[in-house]
Amino acid sequence: MSGPDAVVVGAGLAGLAAATAVARAGLDTLHVAPKGPGDRRTPAPMLPSVDCLPSSGLVDDPAAVGQPLTRIRIVDDTGRLVRAPETLFDSAEFDLPAFGWNFPNVRLSERFEAARAGLPNLRASDSLLASVSADPGGWRLRLADGTDLVTPLLVGADGKKSMVRDAVGIQARETAFTQAALVCDLELGRPLDGTSVEFHYPNGPFTLVPAGDNRANLVWIDQRDTLAAAQSAGPEGLRETSCAKSRWLWASTQLLAPARLFPLSPLPIDRAGRDGVVRVGEGAHAFPPIGAQGLNLGLRDVADLALTLAATDRSQPGWAVRLSDDYASRRAADLGRTGSMVDALFRSLLSELLPAQALRASGLWALKLVPPLRRQANRLGVGHRWTNKKGAPERPSIRCCTAAYGFGAASLPSCRRSSSARSCRVCSSALAPVASWLNWSKVIAVSLS
Ligand SMILES: Cc1cc2nc3c(=O)[nH]c(=O)nc-3n(C[C@H](O)[C@H](O)[C@H](O)COP(=O)(O)OP(=O)(O)OC[C@H]3O[C@@H](n4cnc5c(N)ncnc54)[C@H](O)[C@@H]3O)c2cc1C
After folding, report:
1. pLDDT of 132-143, one tens digit each?
2. What is the 352 CA–ligand 1 centroid distance (Å)?
């Protein structure tokens, strides 16, 4: 049975971007893209990812769709004995027009769909993927509308509960946090002027992201029960809570839309591709929304998929398997580094241990006072690509998270069985605060050298 050269599953932002990239590389492409309810999230990808949007044909002018984030202010409102100083990062200091852009998911999807519509070698189906099985020709897919087809290349952009990932036997250990994220749109008494303001509380940050004029998108991370109670208090109750949490700095705050809750269940990053299957976006990795990395990383997945497609000779048998292996090794370093960074940030913020709190506070003091360190941290935060001396993407040499954080070679017996930076639960839970500080020390050393 002959089928398309590639099938992309999932109509989220990563799926739309991936389907467009695959078709633009010249492959006959089927996009399995059932329409979901409008996604009210407002992801804020960082500048390097946003820079890829015009060249990948997705969005000509990011300014027409989103709002620039030119400053990030961090306010430690934990009330702890050892607190971090208030810190302001300004993109001008790094000669950047902005750190990133805040996009309403719905508007970005519309743009991505328009880009996809113009490609003659791309068909979209609004049916769900019902099953996946191995086939001599690659992968056999059955859609809910009864369509049966075989494709050599399968791109899984089908989110956290990925059927593609499960079907090809890639293990995923989703961990459910007790925290969730509450998002809603606010009208403030005065504009944020491009500044994203993060109030850090003991259970997670309360962040106001500029959405144009006096509008802001709230992303509040806290215990699920606390957020559910705030949500069920109704618009007036939530408005009062928002004002109190933001220290009444934007006086006449109003709610523009009902709040929504997102459970937080990070998905540790494993191998991003094999056997003719590649995974992008939350089909491959999911994080708590800290450090604005989710879609950021998803767009970098797609950029690397486009590079891998361009470098693959599709006239040779087995091209899709080679492509998935090349893609996995191209993505490994970036996924490992970003996963470690978000994990360390989240754990160091929530840690109840005084030494960990002191380390976090001194880390922020160091960032505030040492400009080279700030520059290095900025490169890490926006997703700068490190390359080796030959200009090739840096390959991971780490065997477990202790090594990722700076301990050097794996030092715990349990780590020796680990194959990726996020795979060792022992060190990620017990040593994260210390390891996080060691990582910062490493960054300080690099910055000062
Ligand atoms: C509160 C919050 C704030 C965030 N803020 C930021 C931020 O500031 N910056 C940032 O970069 N990221 C942020 N993120 C993350 C970002 O929103 C996500 O990474 C991104 O939207 C995920 O896109 P995706 O396409 O990978 O997955 P999804 O949007 O989950 O898309 C998956 C798609 O697959 C489809 N699907 C599933 N199963 C099937 C099937 N069997 N057949 C066919 N289709 C299927 C679904 O219908 C869905 O359309 C945030 C996330 C949250 C929760």
Report:
1. 999 999 999 999
2. 31
Give the C-alpha separation, 293 to 266, whole Å: 12
* Residue where the block lists tokens 């990030």: 72
* 413 three-state secondary structure: helix
For the chain, list the domains and their CATH numbers.
6-60+104-171+271-331 (3.50.50.60), 64-102+176-263 (3.30.9.10), 346-448 (no CATH)
Amino acid at 441: S
**Closest by CA position to 281, among listed 322, 123, 272, 7:** 272
> Rounded to an integer, what distance in angstroms lies between the CA atom of residue 362 and that of residue 437?
9
Q: How far apart are CA 155 and CA 209, in angstroms?
A: 32
Are 6 and 155 within 8 A, CB to CB? yes
**Alpha-helical regions (H) of 61-104:** none
Sign of the torsion formed by the C-alpha atoms of 259, 264, 267 and 268:
positive
Measuring from atom 38 of ligand 1, which residue has the nearest CA?
158
This prediction's pTM = 0.82
Q: Cα–Cα distance between 406 and 388 in angstroms, integer?
A: 19
Residues 55-96: tens digit of each pLDDT: 889 999 888 899 999 999 989 888 777 777 788 889 998 888
Does the structure show a pLDDT above 70 at 401? no
Distance 10 CA to ligand 1 centre (A): 9
Backbone phi, psi, residue 23, to 5°: -70, -40
